[in-house]
Task: structure prediction
Amino acid sequence: MKLRYLANISGKLLMALLFIITALMLFIFLGSIFSRGIGVISWSFISETPRSGMTEGGIFPAIVGTFWLTLLSILIALPLGIFCAIYLFCYGKPMWFVNMVRLAINTLAGVPSIIYGLFGMAVFVNMFSLDVSLISGALTLSVLALPLIINTTEEALQSVPADFTEASIALGAQKSTTIIRVVLPSALPNILTGVIISIGRVAGETAPIMFTAATFYSRKLPNSLSDEVMALPYHIFALVTEGSKATQQVPIAYGSALVLLFLVLGVSSIAIAIRYHMRRNKQW
Amino acid sequence: MQVREKAFVGITHTAALFSLAAVFGIIFSVFREGIPLFCTISIGDFIFGSAWYPTHAETPQFGVLYLLIGSLLVTLGALMIAVPLGLGSAIFISEIATPRLKEIAKPIVELLAAIPSVVYGLFGMMVLAPFVRELINLNTGLNLFSTSIILGLMVLPIISSMSEDALANVPKQLREASLALGATSWETIAKVVVPAARRGIVGSVLQGFGRAIGETMVVLMVAGGSAQIPKSIFDSIRPLTSTIAAEMGETVIGDLHYRVLFAIAGLLFIITFVINLVADLVFLKRKVK
Result:
């Protein structure tokens, strides 16, 4: 009897310990990036262009590049993703086609990011002759964002009570009207949360833009869709793997990493806050 | 009005077609660039060849066996970290923590999933690797051991959140029946709840496997990059993904080196596709609506 009591306590303690180790690893991770990066960050670090072959100056072009890459890719993926989710959830016929689309989405979600990079390079950069450019990178990232947006949108649509749809149909509204006027507005906050999560994910990707959009060094900001861009994640990678002045480059890499973390985690916490707020004010 | 309805249906169909087109585009582009390689070397030499000298002037060799082994080893290493920690966290969050603790614990694990891979890579390369090197007195900390830890940390949230879903889906009655029979709460967890959720848990581990084997930036920055079979966990390795990322920039479009990197991507695609398919169909059984 005593042994069972002991096993009960120690088993649960072990699980708690495993969680504590996980949390500890996260804190060590965040703490070391933060402590090494915070000293570098200043207004000029964020607002200036790099100087002296990447060893001085700021990371403004990389922030701008990441902003455009993320914005464009989400703008491309959003309508496609939402309509695809509407098709899957609201129409869903014929069955064989739905199954194929679902298989496709699951496959897309599991494709390693480097393969997206090669795909973008082969198709957008070379086949469509878009070269290494903002638009090639944005198109590549939009394909990566597509399954994320489809999945979250479909979940959002599922969370809309069937009563809403039925009430609308009963009032004589057509299916498309029902979807546009009733289902989508009710699902909008959840869709928004999903989109914000996708933004965080897309902004942090490196491998897909390595061969499609990113350049190590650019003094000017992107002027057009066909310009190469700097991007925060690639900038971090390049700073620690290229160039010869490690002692000067590494601190900049930490600073950039901290900025990227702020952006990504900031964006994610907005999503979490929206979700939390919604759960409280849920009207149905 | 009928026209509007039809147009709307048409738009949604087209959007669905786009996601199909995206997958076919990926398959088509990767295999179209990779398959011509096999006019020059055989598939057997590609997969089972152990010599990776893609840039050798006279006799370049394109055997990916050691790279494949590197990928598998680092994936297994990552799972050895991620499975106990991830599953333990999932059990803790789902079964043990009080509701208030759960509200804090869950975002902590979710936070791990939100961190970009290149930042994990930076940490592994600049913080963990020097630490490991000093600690065990090695030539380099960029090795299988360090990579496994970082990659494990990355895969952990996938395993944890999916396992947690699986645990949460175990019917309440099972728990109550077990407790009513006099089992302690730990016995209920270990002998009733976890076994009942095992499909989902195995599925989550498979998804973690798929994610780990396809991860690029961490292995590129932390694994060290020598194409060999490691003799110990403190040897450096070179997985498939980092080979593609590191070498693609040096190739000329259409040459053998370029083709072999696409062939590696094709191999990776097949591996992850099969793993994810098995995870989905066998273990996760997507709910039919």
Q: What stands out?
A: Chain B touches chain A through 91 residues (CB under 8 Å). The mean pLDDT of chain B is 90. The radius of gyration of chain B is 23 Å. DSSP finds twelve helices and two strands in chain B.
